[in-house]
Records
---
Amino acid sequence: MANIKPKIVLSDLTYDNQEERAVLSVLRSRWISLGQECQKLEKEFSAYIGVSNALAVTNGTAALHLAFASLNIGQGDEVIVPSLTFVATANAVRYTGATPVFADVSSLDDLTISSKDIERKITKRTKAICVVHYAGYPCNMDAIKSIAKKFKLYVIEDAAHGPGSYYNGKQIGTLADIGCFSFYANKNLATGEGGMIVTDNTDLATRIKYLRSHGMTTIAWDRHKGRAYNYDVLMLGYNYRFDEIRAALGRIQLAKLTKNNKKRGRLNTHYVNLLKTVKKVKIPFLNRKEIVSHHIFPILLESNVNRIKLMAALASEGIQTSIHYPPVHSMSIYLDSHKTELPFTQIVGEHELTLPMHPRLEFKDIERVVDVLKYSLDNIQ
Ligand SMILES: *Cc1c(COP(=O)(O)O)cnc(C)c1O
């Protein structure tokens, strides 16, 4: 019989019978679109991260789109974004008619957007900066916010790699004008598809609420509850509503988040201890002390390591790996940005490798990943 090795996947769900019960109870309630589960999730989420308004939406990309749209960003405007991110960060800018302008990351140690490069990329058209807290590590928000203040720019946080990361005692997503979260299947809080948009600005929250549901003054839930009979449409909105089944999943996932993030933290420390003396491997964010969500575990490979062969060697041992990220400015659809020079982003895009990270892993799994990695580094050509 073939020797079947255990598969160590990149990310995994932490669902158990609590999620099953929560979904079943929604099904039996016979109300499945935006309703009380969504409202409870919004309330619990805003309490957890410490913000006054949280609105559940279809996904993280919709949250980003609503953030830019609610700030009236559009045609002729520019938004500075990192290139080292998932493409949705830049695409959401484009949905409004505005142009994403790519900035480099700070260094090979700090893979978050560089405040110095942000300042270099500001033009008369710049309206906002959208930061990405890579792997959950907070960007240099003090510097970024002081630049924003100086040039009168909005700051939007793409906090898809959170929630649960702290910067000066406050959670990411609550540090600027608007925060955006994703509840995609591989995120720390997973509902399949889903997202949350948060702000302390109540006027903005009201606008976002309209934009989430066609610009309508009432939602079906209110009409169902007999609180409203008619409605007006105030602005061109979208249908970015969330639903009860996923909200119920989200509430259970939120209750597990702190524990799960702590487990990620212990796994992260174990990786770091085992890897810090390994030749040909550099670990970014080594000396950061904040409590962070550890959404992913990224390493940088020395330039002479053949990453494709290394990934194949790990895969043949049942270990799944990934790349975060192929830089957005080098994608075909951002052709105009190809000439942009982002030296650190380029190096990270070419040499980053993401190792498995999720709360169901154990120390022995981390040890196996590191053993196979070390062996493969020594043996691939
Ligand atoms: C996942 C992710 C998104 C998009 O979220 P979806 O819920 O998949 O739409 C945006 N930005 C970053 C950095 C992400 O990781």
---
Amino acid sequence: MGNKSRLFGLSCILLAYYTYIPIPENIEEPWKMRLIDIFMKIATLTVVLLLPVLKVVHSRSKKKVYIWFTFISVKCVNSYLNGDDDFNTGLFYCGSPSEKLTGKLHCIFMGRDYRLAPQYLFPAALEDCIFAIKFFLQDKVLEKYGVDPARICISGDSSGGALVGSVTQLLQDDPEYRNKIKTQAMIYPKLQIIDTWMPSYREYKDGPFLSRKLAIKVSIRYITEDEELPEAILRNEYMPEGSRDLFKFVNWSHFLPEKYKKNHVYREPILGTLNASYPVLLDSRLSPLLVNDSQLQKLPLTYIITCEHDILRDDGLIYVTRLRNAGVPVTHEHIEDAIHGAISFVTAPMYLHSGLRILDKYISWLQENL
Ligand SMILES: *[C@@H]1O[C@H](CO)[C@@H](O)[C@H](O)[C@H]1NC(C)=O
Ligand SMILES: *[C@@H]1O[C@H](CO)[C@@H](O)[C@H](O)[C@H]1NC(C)=O
Ligand SMILES: *[C@@H]1O[C@H](CO)[C@@H](O)[C@H](O)[C@H]1NC(C)=O
């Protein structure tokens, strides 16, 4: 056997090893899941720069507005919108259901570009989002676009869910903007960064689609370039001394419905092993779950979709419990056979039936509630 074929054989074995994941039994379309997972792993090797994108989805006929957050890779952005004072219309599409929404809801999309990590770390992108939303929520701007100020929704998926959570909380705290948001809608949101060893993080640590390592890497790019932090997070030993009090807000042993706890045993995180200090880890603008109940009480009607095969499942489930405990009306859909990212796969040829189902549920909920 020649060197070339040996090399080829070795590469195949390595690729198979690298891309192999046990696909859960009850999952629909397993071969597509595998392809998507492989795609994601290869993409992880090549695409490292992620940025948050804000879209304002504006339905002319129905005079309501969705503001959509998602994290997408730079290269996929079709058009940037510019100027601080004027929104140009344009269509963003990549890994988000914007195209489908436009079709079903007769919408136009707007957005603007953001200061990017790693040059601009947290909270630069969040501040930009807040700035853009506050600009948009001015009476004169709403009027210009014929928007009914009583029918505005903030929405987003995955890391965009963190933006939705914190933007909604921050606006409710601001007397000028309180009650301007009718509803927040989150699809498998990422809502905290202080406990990465919840049951879903254990069960789905290798994916499908989003592995624990990737989730941690992506969130940390937004905070620091220091390599020590992600390593410490992987060991779940990174929160500073004195932060124990925050764990009551995300304590899964307290907030997770019994069904999802299975045989997992709650393990308190080990504190104080990290030398560097990252105050951002304690910041509720990064982890919207870190606010107390009186802050949650102010929040508007909430829609949350969680997927079973998703490391972020428990973030969403805990937010559902906490919001309901605080008396906030919540519609929660749990999709038993879906993976993280499912709603990004709604266009041929790589569509998932579960993605289409989620999108249908989401759209009909918006149609009824916004
Ligand atoms: C988490 O909740 C469990 C059960 O409610 C409790 O025993 C434990 O002390 C809590 N831990 C923290 C850090 O809040
Ligand atoms: C952290 O501090 C310990 C003890 O002071 C030291 O031994 C270790 O090298 C430090 N680690 C880093 C990454 O600076
Ligand atoms: C909740 O948090 C807010 C902001 O940190 C604080 O002002 C308020 O006193 C807290 N409320 C309770 C009941 O702890």
---
Amino acid sequence: MREPTLFELSSPGRTGVTFPVSDVPLTKLPDTGMLRDELAIPELAEVDVVRHYMKLSKYNYSVDEGFYPLGSCTMKYNPKINEDTCRLPGFVNTHPLQPIETVQGNLALLWEMQEWLKEISGFAAVTLQPAAGAHGEFTGVLMMQAYHKARGDSKRIKMLIPDAAHGTNPASAGMLGMEIVTIHSDANGNVDLEALKAACDDTVVGMMLTNPNTLGLFDQNITEVVKLVRDCGGLMYADGANLNALLGIVRPGDLGFDVMHFNLHKTFAVPHGGGGPGSGPVGVSERLEAFLPAPLIYKVEEGTDEIPPLYGYETPKQSIGRMKAFHGHFGAIIRSYTYIAMHGPDGLKAISQYAVLNANYLMARLKKTYKVPFDRICMHEFVMEGRFEGTDIRALDISKRLMDFDFHPPTNYFPLIVHEALMIEPTETENKQTMDAFTDALLAIAEEARTNPEIIKSAPHNTLFGRMDEVKAARELVLCCWLPDQPLD
Ligand SMILES: *Cc1c(COP(=O)(O)O)cnc(C)c1O
């Protein structure tokens, strides 16, 4: 069964708007090839349209509706005050092409955000331009390449990437023609130091490292890792997607990283995953400052008690150029600015402490029933195996069954180095009752695996649609759902 489309609900002559009678004389439209005689638009009243979209919206699952433990993606609750501030008329009714003296308030916010992100991460400078994490990676890797090139060091073509890395890391380096060298993890889930030593030479651009990594583990040899890469002339890239574990506790800049992207939509509460655009600012150490994308916001003149400071744009000396129109996703930046301002330094630190506590609580309740391959204190997320000895239940089946219990499934099959991986990230805002209900559901599913495996294999049962053919859904996408070739049921 599918919902009728607006076209199918349409009735000739029905309308949602009435235009006033024209008070200017009618004129003929210019005779160009761009004009159409026919334009198919559904004809409906306002109430029909509202009901249609309200109904569709209720088929979605969102973090405002329930627990959303999607590891690596950090689907944290987005406080609603962020939505109020980003809609303030002073922000909404400005345009980036306005004369600079008329948008000083916007520039003040952007400048302060650059400063805050510097302080949080320990980097020397920050660009707010990139659109999201992957775009930030591409920006960072471009700067790493530019740095070596500017020093006349043209031999460097290899990017070292651990096997636990997110797929965007090799993709970003690969897009710049670099050769990807995979570094294995050791038995504790850290970077294998011997493998790293063997790979470090004068052809290395640098290393892209996520820390804590996608197993949710803080690399116990991080200082050693950074030193090995730096000693062979490479630069260290930090994938900042897991910053939610470190706020106010560890600064990647202090660990010796040269560049890092922030995922504002993960760490600093911006709706994402169908909820809106993200934002991927990039911080750099002094070595890379001159290569940052332009323009950066800078303070032209300090203010006084009576006169506010004056802000302007600047282009770093060896800038890689522009990465995005204007200043990036301003609305996302305002949301994150609000989130940081509302929490302050102590609040940010508490966020990470609770995120880590919550993940460890879940792991402790589950690890007797589900195998946790790296049994160490985890950071803000952990990975367990979604399979049981003697059954053919897989991680995907468990995830589908969780939907019957009204939970969003965890991340499946990532990282690739864990069999049937289920990657669970509760975030800091979940209370004990919610986390107990979630673990109870997973423990009940483990019991079903023994007593009634078919109910797991055929799940979900309580959702609008049952088990999908996911390959067909991905390969034969139907994006124009108004095409009249689908029957209504
Ligand atoms: C989310 C994520 C990325 C990519 O970030 P986007 O904002 O989705 O482009 C990169 N690395 C890791 C570890 C991530 O979790």
---
Amino acid sequence: MKNNWLRKTIRSFEPYVVPEIREHTVINANESPYNIFDFPKVKEDFLARLAKTPSYHYPDPFAEELRAALAKYVGCKADEVLVGNGGDEIISLIMNTFLDPGDTLLTHTPTFDIYGIDAEVLGAKVITVPDLDGYRRDRDAFLAKIKEVQPKVTVLCNPNNPTGELLPLDYVEALLKAADNLVVIDEAYLEFAGAPSIITKLSEYDNLIVIRTLSKAFGLAGCRVGYGVAQKEVIDALGLTKLVYNLNILSQDAALAAMDYADEILAHNVPPTIAARQRFCEVLAEVPNLTVYPSATNFVLVRVPDGPAMVEALHQADICVRSYKAADLKNCLRITITTDDVAQKVAAVMKEEAAKDA
Ligand SMILES: *Cc1c(COP(=O)(O)O)cnc(C)c1O
């Protein structure tokens, strides 16, 4: 294949290599340790739906039953929800719908890579505002940047992946008020934050798009169900370029079963994760040469003296965590919090390894 067959915007892209995972404790992707099919009622509900699902029919293009269930869950109207093949599809749809080549995407750094990648594919320009010390976002600089450039699309990940920081709703509202164009708030981890969603203010902002997912707190990462929430006109616009049958029937059935028992699933999955996160942070906070950044999510970012050595020590203990190449995340590891047992095992390994550098 000739390199110039590729569209110009992607010729310098490196292939996305997923390293082979040999460890048994895999806590590198913020997955839940809980399987919805282990809840007997959810499994029964799913199987009952499956029994009534003919394989030969195309799925409902807008997953009407599911969008109604998700709307009820977040507290908006069904026509204010668009369901996608993971939150990743919603991000991609947003960029496809609103960015022309040369347009500007504004976000902060470090954050989720996908926003910038999708924008670059489209030939848009990505501007990032770096965090202050301690991975606290530079709120004033970000707000000022919106006013200065009026980017076509602004993205704020809240709480942020990979730093875990949650910003309050009044700040999010200040961004929405400052922007003439769209502001995307990625709330993939909101269920772990114990804070209200900006969806509560949806009726006031025609430029707001919220990204949510069932991959994290609900433990449906394998089913690929995410959704966007915005006023109807924006949702209709996102539907313009969507693949017609973007969400398969099996995923719709699984997501519907999860929504039927949303309260039970969250009550089961979230409090133990938060308790395990707190204990993990408390233990590591006492280790002199580790820096633990406060998190409102199901993961914790930790700065260690020697990143590769710590990754190796965890690997020796059969644990796979997320590390980074980016300069602003040097020697940082992102630890997904699953159960308390696992978190305490990880903490013990990290404490022992950090002591070697003392
Ligand atoms: C996990 C995640 C998503 C969405 O993931 P999907 O599995 O595609 O739903 C979106 N944003 C952030 C920041 C995430 O970490």
